[in-house]
Design goal:
There is one protein chain. With about 100 residues, the protein is α+β, with helices and mostly antiparallel strands. The protein has helices at about 10-20, 45-55, 75-95; strands at about 60-65, 70-75. The protein has a two-stranded antiparallel ribbon. A hairpin with a 2-residue loop joins β1 and β2.
Length: about 100
């Protein structure tokens, strides 16, 4: 099993391409990863907690790690979609006023 070493995003790739031109696209991922503390969540975390992590760290994608194993990646789009479904379910469960 491998441990997460960091993350690479468009914010890492675009400057490399700007600095190195087309050769920047041939760089190894290890040369691009952000090595600051890896921010992650667990699959049992609430949507509010995940949204807060994303807002606090200015990120749109968050690795989901359970027992030191990457089980997925959740995006801001996923969080917003799930929150929308929760709101729809709450509205549907609300009795209509006559």
């Amino acid at each position: 099993m491998r441990a997460a070493a960091g993350r690479a995003s468009a914010r890492d790739v675009v400057p490399a391409a700007a600095d190195h031109g087309a050769a920047g696209l041939a760089l190894k991922v290890g040369a691009l990863i952000s090595v600051q503390r890896l921010v992650s969540c667990r699959s049992a975390d609430s949507l509010d907690h995940v949204r807060g992590l994303m807002a606090d760290h200015h990120i749109r994608h968050l690795p989901v790690i359970d027992d030191h194993t990457l089980v997925g990646v959740i995006s801001m789009r996923d969080v917003n979609a799930a929150a929308g479904h929760e709101a729809e379910a709450a509205i549907a469960a609300t009795p209509a006023f006559a």
